[in-house]
Design goal:
3-stranded antiparallel beta sheet, alpha+beta
Amino acid sequence: MLDSFIPSEICLSCRGCCRFGERGSVWSPLFLYEEIQKLVAADIVPACLFSHSGISSKKASRIDTVEIDGQLYCPCLDAGANACKIYPHRPFDCRLYPFLLLKKEGKAYLALDLKCPFVADPHQAQALASWQQEVAHFLSTPEFKQTLRRNPEILQEYPGDFKILMPLSFD
């Protein structure tokens, strides 16, 4: 499984992730069905946070956001510490970020969210290129291809500022 390559001090100082402009935003975490099962069974995340579809449909599902002072947050975010309460168990979608699995015009791509401060730093280009190779290798494994077949929803249509890095083939 992938793990974060962005230094934690950069992530912890950013106020971009885990906050959303609308309920059901494509930017809110998408949990694979298998992840939902494990988190609920281990009593890490309550099943009610996936009430909109995850448990009953046996599909990948967005976690329900919570509203605090007019701002929507991931319920796994400790807003005071700006840290994930389930970090060791966070979903693939969060582990992959700032890389995105993009669906555009019926095709799949590996893309990069340009709003991430680490991505925006030109001094990090080499680190990003190296991690892109790691991500591309992971996405080509039989295990991931099987995960994708079970959870096609992880290919998503993202609006806004992203850069397509490469086409993906899952044959």
